[in-house]
Amino acid sequence: MHFFKHKNGVLHCEETSVESIAHDVGTPFYLYSYRTLVRHYQAFDEAFKDLPHLICYSAKANSNVAVLRTFINQGSGVDVVSGGELFRALHAGADPATVVYSGVGKREDEIRYALQERILMFNVESYQELHVINGVASTMGIQAPIALRVNPDIDPKTHPYIATGIKQAKFGIDVDRALEWYREAQGLPHLTIRGVSCHIGSQLTEIGPFVEALKRVKELVLKLGDEGIKVEYMDLGGGLGITYHQEEPPHPQEYASAIITEGKALPCTFIFEPGRVIVGNAGILVTRVLYTKEGDKNFVVVDAAMNDLVRPTLYGSYQEIVSVTAKQGDEMVADMVGPICESGDFLARDRAMPCFEPGDLVAVMSAGAYGFVMSSNYNSRPRVPEVLVKDGVFHVIRERESYADLIREEHIPSFLEE
Amino acid sequence: MHFFKHKNGVLHCEETSVESIAHDVGTPFYLYSYRTLVRHYQAFDEAFKDLPHLICYSAKANSNVAVLRTFINQGSGVDVVSGGELFRALHAGADPATVVYSGVGKREDEIRYALQERILMFNVESYQELHVINGVASTMGIQAPIALRVNPDIDPKTHPYIATGIKQAKFGIDVDRALEWYREAQGLPHLTIRGVSCHIGSQLTEIGPFVEALKRVKELVLKLGDEGIKVEYMDLGGGLGITYHQEEPPHPQEYASAIITEGKALPCTFIFEPGRVIVGNAGILVTRVLYTKEGDKNFVVVDAAMNDLVRPTLYGSYQEIVSVTAKQGDEMVADMVGPICESGDFLARDRAMPCFEPGDLVAVMSAGAYGFVMSSNYNSRPRVPEVLVKDGVFHVIRERESYADLIREEHIPSFLEE
What we know:
The structure is a homodimer of 418-residue chains.
Chain A: E1 4-7, E2 10-13, E3 16-17, H1 18-25, E4 29-33, H2 34-47, E5 53-58, H3 65-73, E6 77-80, H4 83-91, E7 99-101, H5 108-116, E8 121-124, H6 127-140, E9 144-151, E10 173-174, H7 175-187, E11 191-197, H8 208-226, E12 233-235, H9 252-263, E13 269-272, H10 276-279, E14 283-293, E15 299-302, H11 311-315, E16 321-323, E17 331-337, E18 346-354, E19 361-364, E20 386-390, E21 393-398, H12 403-406, H13 414-417
Parallel strand pairs in A: 4-20, 5-6, 5-13, 6-7, 7-8, 8-9, 9-10, 9-11, 11-12, 12-13, 15-17
Antiparallel strand pairs in A: 1-2, 2-3, 4-14, 14-15, 14-19, 16-19, 17-18, 20-21
């Protein structure tokens, strides 16, 4: 449940009119509801109250420092996948002892940075990485806390680009080999085994695959116990889906019940890495209609484009289109497209929508996750601002970029000036 | 033909070792060859020497200010598609009288900016835009120079995302209605008709569709002449393809011959907007192997990712993979993937490649167009530098972003600090 609703015919974010914010900050912009962020976080956390657990919010879904701080204030740790995300988490005030570091391509400088900051643990993705982390820790004269990320080979039934726990994916370590590698890790002088982790995909709408994955990992934890390898943390990753259109994902409560039933006998602290399920429906992208074109096909040209929100273009994702000012009367079938010079630049295709006119404000719903974080400057479009509403006040938590920002890092060498 | 070749077993950009640049600037980075840029520009320009013409380099392919300046020094104008690209072109020293402004979503402030700067002309994409431009010019008390972009409904046989001249695309004006709209434009007091334009797609590998489009537009120009509407500029857009893998696109010389044959009788100056054909093979992305993973499927994990080069993920594009240090011996079949936490993050899939090892340098070829310009900070990865080689010297023309750059525009509101 989110707090974007029409009141007196105008879309509001909590108690604040989206129209009034657009008037003040211009379009396009991302808009987040603080109350929704907190509500979603608390619902997830509350669902696991009967299980020892730590929530590590997945920064990759939305890494704005104010969003991170919101969850950190609620007691959340952070799941990071790069040095840049670690930097953001620390800047937002995260306790390093609640940060887990995942990802298949950790560079040595990133590993050193995370070790210096004393994070909770690395989720190790490969045999080589095990040795690289041991090596970096060795040069620093310290122990590196690790979990092995096992790949349970479960089909999560999601978009192939975000299915991560199948054998064909680059992620994790074959579950059958994991035991052997844990033994090896135990023998490496600068590693401390702290956990086991897995993550099977993103935007999952069924509980079955999660439970199946937990079963496989549980077997491993029991075997490890038999060998005297203690697993303190069981990191089950994230991946719970949200409703973009007609999906009916389980409520966190149902997900938690299934996990608790299967996992409660294990003497571990469970780590969860929710991202999309918390922020996805807590944000929208607000854009304005520039032009309409009628013909064999109808087009509504808005001022937001694929550089601002790439999900429809990249994954063919459905994002609900809502008129900020409630519109009566007929609908039209049209493509909603942006100004970018590609036919791939669209927000919706062949969609029934209100008969929009130039100047109308449009809300692209469910844009809180994998929205701004994937945005680019393609076609030299400055990136848009991010705005957070709380208690009837809106806060610009990221400024709109200027034209000058586009070229700040660029130079014309002197030989070209002659 | 480009100037990236192995010499003594090491890939060179012109006379400069790619390994030595990587040593100095770190990886990943984009690397451009000045000699290749100039050669490609001149080959294109030379091919049209028998036709009155203006080349307006298409900034969207690669808009680095040093790259723009390179072409401007050669006499090029610039094709821009946003206020940001206009800003870049002017910063790079373009003469506004050689700038054309294309794109379906021009905002009023962008139109005003372009009018203030006195650009050559707007390529108008819709009926409403015609009136908006007239209105903005009216408030400024000036005349706006325009061409109508007609959509000739030609299938360019390219990726659907970059096919732009078909009826199902958002671009341009139905060729059958164009005459009527030209008449209307002539009646609007603040418009000056300067040309006709069309653009049918990108990465075309056949000449036929270009000639077909020209034929249709030519008919229109002749009809306009009959009505006393003079067309000074005939803008044929860009779209000529390059060899990424096994494509055999026509040489600019062949393309030019066909266009000249069909177009020479027209009393117009022709405008061409080449982008990819000039810069595509003049740039590479250099990355380093971090890890290899062998199993049911082999993976080579490198330090560049889909945020740096999105074409393989977005369009399924083929980019050639070359070892910077020539490797003898066996090959392997593997996926080359980046550190981003998506299965969609790959640079090559199921590809025969040298048996790479951690530390090896890899060149991703043909990355000069739609490479850096589409890059993002996804997974909080700082954007990579761009480097230009000329006469044995390399110049960093865009600096690597820092972690601090990632959050420069962000704020944590005070209510979260309590």
